[in-house]
Amino acid sequence: MLKISSLKKLVTDSMAIDLGTASTIIAVKGRGIVLDEPSLVAVNEMTEEIVAFGVEAAEMSGREGRDISVRAPMIGGVVGDFERTKRMLAYFVRKAKTGGSNISLQAVMSMVSDVTHVEQRALLNAADDAGIGKVFMMEEGLAAAFGAGVSPSDKRASAIVDIGAGTTNIAIVAKGSVVHSTSDRYGSNAINESLATHLRRHRGLQVGEETIEMLKTRFAGTFLPDDIAKTIEVRGRDVETGSPAAVEITTGEVYPIVEAIVRRIALRVKDTLTELRPEVAADIYDRGVILTGGGALLEGIDQYMRSFINLPVAIADEPRYAIVKGLLSMFEDEKLLERVSINELGVLKGADAPFEA
Ligand SMILES: Nc1ncnc2c1ncn2[C@@H]1O[C@H](COP(=O)(O)OP(=O)(O)OP(=O)(O)O)[C@@H](O)[C@H]1O
Ligand SMILES: [Mg+2]
Predict the structure, then answer these.
(1) pLDDT category, 112, cuts 50, 70, 90?
(2) Which ligand is nearest to the CA of 164?
(3) 136-182 pLDDT tens trace
(4) Range of the domain at 336
(5) Cα 167 to ligand 1 centre (Å)
(6) What is the structure's pLDDT at 353?
(7) Which of 176, 265, 293, 335 is an S-S bond match for 152, by CB 3.0 to 4.6 Å?
(8) What does the pLDDT read at residue 233?
(9) Looking at ligand 1, which residue's alpha carbon is closest to its atom 9?
(10) Do residues 164 and 138 both lie within one domain?
(11) Ligand 1 centre distance from Cα of residue 159 (Å)
C-alpha cells in the first residue's frame, strides 16, 4: 500500500496562466478559472519592498499612502520589470494552487507572437522562479483561437483578433497552427491614456486610473451617439489650483477620442487581412473575424470593425477568458500540447523532476 507521503507526491496541478498587461488569469485543470486579478504590485518607495499584489494592490491604486506606489510590472504584454513580475507570478501561482506544498506544478503560458528571445527567457525564468516545474509556452493567437471555439483539426482558416490592454494580437489559424500573425504593442489602454490626456490638456483636470476606466467602460463607445450632448461628471484634481474639482464632459467629446484609437486597431486588422494567401483569404471572407480580449467589450466595437473591414465580426464568449480557456484545453490533448509548444528554452531545470517539494 502507498504511504500518504508518496500519494501526495503524485498530485500535480496543471495550470493555464494568461499573464497579461492588465490582468493575470489562471485556470487549473479540473477546477476551471480560479484567479483573475490585476497585474499590479504595490511597492513601498522607501524600502522597495512589495507590500501587496493583485486586487489588494489595485485597491491602493490612486489613493496610496505617501510611501506606496502601485506599479504594473508587465508592459505591452511582456515582462517590463523582471524582479517584480517574478514575485507577482509566484504570489498568484501560490494563491491558485490546489493546496499543500507537495502539489507540483506544470503550466502552459502564452506569449505574443513577436516576442523576442530576451523577453521569452524573462518569462520562462519568472515561471521557473515561481516554482513551476515544467512550463510550456504557446503563441497567444493559437490559445485565443482554441478558447474561442476554433477546433485544432479545422482545416479551414479562422481569424482571431485579441485586443488586450497593452497589445493587439492578430492571428490566422488553420489546422491547429498559426499561418499568419501580427502583433502590436498597442491595445485598449491607449483609450485610457488618450482620455486622460484630453481631460488634462483641454479641461484642466487630472484624473485617476479608476475614474478613466469607469469613463471608458460606462460612457465610451465606438459610434457617434444619438445624443451628443449627454453629459457625465468626471472628478479629479484641478491642474492649475491643485484643488479637488469636477468637469462635465459630453459623449460628443469622448467619441472622437475613442474612435481614433479603435480606427487604428481596425486598420491594423484590415492591413493584416491583405497579407493572406488566396485560399486563406477565401476562408476568412466566409467566416470573418473573432474578437477576444477585454478590448472586445468596448461598446459597439464589433459593429465598428464589421463596417470597417466589410466582413462578419463576432465576439467570443467571455472574451477576456478566451486565452486562458484555450491554454487549459491543451491539457486534454498531450500530443497537441507537445506540437504547439514553442520552446527550445522551455524545458527548464527541474522539468525532469516535476514533483519538487
Ligand atoms: N466592459 C469593458 N468595456 C470596455 N473595455 C473594457 C471592458 N472590460 C475590460 N476592458 C478593457 O480591456 C482591457 C483588458 O483586457 P485584457 O484583460 O484582455 O488585457 P490583458 O490580457 O491584461 O492585456 P494584454 O493582452 O495586452 O497583455 C483593458 O484596457 C480594459 O479597460
Ligand atoms: Mg491578454
Answers:
(1) confident
(2) 1
(3) 999 999 999 999 999 999 999 999 999 999 999 999 999 999 999 99
(4) 4-38+72-144+322-340
(5) 10
(6) 40
(7) 176
(8) 96
(9) 294
(10) no
(11) 19
Q: What is the pLDDT of residues 281-302, one digit of tens each?
A: 999 999 999 999 999 999 999 9
Ligand nearest to the CA of 38: 1
- Name the H helices within the chain: 4-9, 54-60, 82-96, 117-129, 140-147, 189-203, 209-219, 251-272, 278-287, 301-309, 322-329, 334-340
Ligand number nearest to the C-alpha of 216: 1
- Is residue 332 domain-shared with residue 282, that is, in the same domain? no
Query: Cα(245) to centroid of ligand 2, in Å?
Result: 34
Residue 329 clears pLDDT 70, i.e. is over it: yes
Question: Which protein residue has the closest C-alpha to ligand 1 atom 5?
Answer: 298
> Do 271 and 329 fall within a single domain?
no
Span from the CA of 240 to the centroid of ligand 2 (angstroms): 37
Helix (H) or strand (E) holding 161: strand 158-163
351 has a pLDDT exceeding 50: no
The preferred substitution site among 39, 170, 188 for testing ligand 1, maximizing ligand atoms within 8 Å of CB, is 188
Residue 345 lies in a domain: no
In this prediction, residue 349 carries a pLDDT of: 39
The total domain count for the chain is: 2
DSSP letter for each residue of 58-121? HHHTTS--TTEEEE-SEETTEESSHHHHHHHHHHHHHHHS-SSTT-EEEEEEEE-TT--HHHHH
